[in-house]
């Protein structure tokens, strides 16, 4: 997910991104990390991964994560891209 932040320094950015990622991990049982735009003050990319026995569950979890990020007042949701990998592709 690409998001814009209302921060003026990397320190302020970290103060928003760390709790955001921690909440995603804790509440939705996903793996999440800051994955891009590390040196930009007002923007970041958050990568989220989920493993489930069926694709529908993965979609549901990612939809829920996206809705939550979109509702967060400290960030402005820009875009999300998804890639699904099945066990047959390994």
Radius of gyration: 14 Å
> In CATH terms, what is the fold-level topology?
Alpha-Beta Plaits
Query: What is the correct CATH architecture?
Result: 2-Layer Sandwich
How is the biggest beta sheet arranged?
A: 4 strands, antiparallel
Care to describe what's here?
With 90 residues, the chain is of the alpha+beta class. The protein has helices spanning 10-28, 55-71, and strands spanning 2-5, 31-36, 43-49, 75-79. The radius of gyration is 14 Å and the shape is elongated. It has a 4-stranded antiparallel beta sheet with strand order 2-3-1-4, with helices on one face. The chain has 2 helices and 4 strands; from the N terminus they run βαββαβ.
Topology:
Layout: E1 2-5, H1 10-28, E2 31-36, E3 43-49, H2 55-71, E4 75-79
Antiparallel strand pairs: 1-3, 1-4, 2-3
Descriptive labels:
2 helices; 90 residues; alpha+beta; four-stranded antiparallel β-sheet; 24% strand; Alpha-Beta Plaits
Summarize the structure.
The chain has 90 residues and is α+β, with helices and mostly antiparallel strands. Helices cover 40% and strands 24% of the residues. It has a single domain (2-80), classed as TT1725-like (Alpha-Beta Plaits, 2-Layer Sandwich), CATH 3.30.70.
């Amino acid at each position: 997910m690409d998001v814009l932040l209302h921060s003026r320094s990397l320190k302020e950015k970290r103060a928003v991104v760390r709790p955001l990622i921690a909440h995603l991990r804790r509440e939705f049982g996903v793996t999440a990390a800051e994955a891009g735009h590390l040196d930009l003050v007002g923007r970041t990319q958050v990568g989220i991964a989920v493993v489930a026995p069926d694709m529908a569950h993965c979609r549901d979890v990612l939809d829920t994560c996206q809705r939550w990020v979109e509702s967060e007042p400290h960030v402005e949701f820009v875009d999300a891209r998804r890639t699904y990998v099945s066990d047959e592709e390994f």
